[in-house]
TrEMBL record:
It comes from Trapa incisa. This is Gamma carbonic anhydrase. It is a peripheral membrane protein. Belongs to the gamma-class carbonic anhydrase family. It is found in: Mitochondrion membrane. InterPro entries: Hexapep (IPR001451), LbH_gamma_CA-like (IPR047324), Transf_Hexapept/Carb_Anhydrase (IPR050484), Trimer_LpxA-like_sf (IPR011004). Pfam families: Hexapep. One of its GO terms (cellular component) is mitochondrial membrane.
Amino acid sequence: MGTLGRAIYTVGFWIRETGQALDRLGCRLQGNYYFQEQLSRHRTLMNIFDKAPVMDKDAFVAPSASIIGDVLVGPCPWCILSFIGDANSISVGSGTNIQDNSLVLVAKSNLSGKVLPTTIGDNVTIGHSAVLHGCTVEDEAFVGTGATLLDGFVVEKHAMVAAGALVRQNTRIPAGEVWGGNPAKFLRKLTDEEIAFISESATNYSDLALVHVAENMKPFDEIEFKKVLCKKHDKWDEEYD
């Protein structure tokens, strides 16, 4: 989208926002139409101009997550995070789970001068609160909780980044190794059991995601009915032994 197209898009956005604001003002003035309940304006999927996310039909994205801009998500069973593909593209393979509070970003510019996307392969496990910025995570790799991966970083297949690690730019972790620390460095080779655990972890999260999908797909009336049941049985039964 060129400069003119973005300008027209922005004007259209302003007009829509103005219309919504006027509608709310009119409801307040009419009194009977005024409502107090504030509805969340959060959107799971959001475009940036003409760049819109593309989701596989089998991907599970939590209602609290945000996927913004040029992002391609395959049949990913577990996405509870924020993807921001504003300056470049993000792609996520199949069977990959990206856990709560993680953040996946792209790099428009850095010290190397390269334009870097973020690429995540198949059957990858990324732990809670991890940050990935302009890097590549190959198939069946493992990124621990709270790890930070900077521009140009590559995790090879069957490699592991330890929890809390900070991996510097343009670092490469060879297959079968675990790195940790700040800055991250080689710790040791992974055992066969640990390599098998990486694939097993992705499978376990795929199975667990089915439960979350079922809960998130429940209609409004079923949710309200369960609330009534919970209130009805919230007191301790005196006959309970």
